[in-house]
Amino acid sequence: MSTQATQTDSDTYTVVIGLEVHVQLETDTKIFCGCSTEPADEPNTHTCPVCLGLPGALPVLNEAAVEAAVKVGKALDSNIPEETRFHRKNYYYPDLPKNFQITQYDNPICQGGTLEISHQDERREIGIRRAHLEEDPGSLQHVGGSIDTADYTLVNYNRAGTPLLEIVTEPDFRDPEEVRAFLAKLEEVLEYLGVFDASRDGSLRVDANISLIEGDHNTIESETLEEANRTEVKNISSHKGAEKALSYEVTRQKNALSRGRAIDQETRHWDESKGITVSMRSKEEEKDYRYFEEANLPPLQVSDWKDKLSIPELPDARRERFQEEYDIDAESADKLTTTKQVADFFEATADEFDPGLAATWVADTLLGELHYRDMIITDVDDRFDEFRRLIELVDNEEITEKNAREVVLRTMLDEQKDPDTIVDEEGLGKTDDDAVAAAVTEAVNENPQAVEDYRSGEGDALNYLVGQVMQKTGGSADPQTVNQLLREELAD
Ligand code: ADP
Ligand code: MG
Ligand code: ZN
Fold first, then answer.
1. pTM for the model
2. Are 50 and 108 part of one and the same domain?
3. Mind listing the pLDDT tens digit for each residue in 245-296?
4. Distances from the Cα of 237 to the Cα of 37, 177, 183, 233, angstroms
5. Could you give the C-alpha distances from 161 to 58, 87, 415, in angstroms and in order?
6. Ligand 1 atom, smallest distance to 225 CA
7. Ligand 3 is a single-atom ion; what residues have CB below 5 A from it?
8. Alpha carbon of 338 to ligand 1 centroid (Å)
9. Which H or E element spans position 75?
10. Number of structural domains in the chain
11. How far is Cα 407 from Cα 362, in angstroms, rounded to an integer?
């Protein structure tokens, strides 16, 4: 296995990365018992004999977890086999009360597949090797220090038995930025499917395998990939963390290789606060786990679940359809489809009002104002009726776009009021025609000089008069209309 590296220019290496992504599936209850998966304030309260691993307690498979996995498989274009099986992966660790984890081995629920990412304006297909169901272990809390310096460690089994889908990619990534793009895209798809909640702490955890291989990436043989010594970096919990940990590893491995040192096959731990990876142990091998079939769970026939379950239109397809159906540009379509909630909201308003107006309002105005306040759409997802009403007020020309954006929306977000209340309180309703006409006459009478200037051909004079009328109407008149009325008034 060990390749003795020689002094080589670091640019002649190709970076090769493959991921194992652990995704918590959103189900009400755990994968093998009826305990709630909701985060609890008190440790060890969402537990029962099954997830505590008490003798004689038997697992019962949660159908919702299987459904979620099949949906992910459909979205990733995986093969869902006729039959899938569960295995025991045996090891001792305090967060694993049974001393084995129920997982899947040689008959995973999703086999093969792809996910397309776009990176630096290029589309790339990342191969999916497999995705399998398993149970999450409990969580450990190291008190008074880190894993190796703590005074003592507390164990909490609330998380034990939360359904996980472990998605394993092919070693198709060629730089850490691609990994980040992939994780963002994967999250997008998982959220569209409604099987995942990105806002939950630790809901996506990544192990990243990385090796540096001599030569150009077009000529690497799969045998070389298999034989290359690689490090597996654990404890990555964010997209940005993945990119940083892998960039660190690229540099570390290049430095080692350029000094003539071989890369050890090992497991390393990403220390987020220090921004470094540290060696944990030599990489465990499959035979260490003594996999054998979980006799308490019969093989599961899943092939027809694939036909029974439907999945929603996915972000890429929706993006393209939005551009065609509503005649909007690629950039807006991008913004409108990154979350299903935004896409659904846009589509509802585009079908009810002018699609161009809806696109500008949702993609630029609403998302822009949220971004400015460091908010995301889920922070306001109980106020879609109010945003719809605001767009309606603009579409009906009851208030000006400028007031809608600069006064109503901002006040809605800053003071939690509804649009009609704000329009009333601020007197933003568009002034009726008579009042505008009266203001026009007044402005003309009060400014004889401007009138004279206008008549002798000075264009600026009209703008001045428009300004006067706008002032008199408190900014609520439509400038186009005012302009028109002034021209008519001054024509005689
Ligand atoms: P293991 O069973 O030891 O974890 P696998 O062959 O199942 O190993 O692969 C695990 C992960 O390692 C996969 O995500 C795969 O893409 C990745 N991988 C395989 N070969 C390489 C390599 N040469 N460099 C980086 N990652 C690799
Ligand atoms: Mg592995
Ligand atoms: Zn339980």
1. 0.83
2. yes
3. 999 999 999 999 999 998 989 999 999 989 999 998 776 777 789 999 999 9
4. 19, 16, 11, 11
5. 13, 15, 42
6. 23
7. 33, 35, 48, 50-51
8. 30
9. helix 63-75
10. 3
11. 16
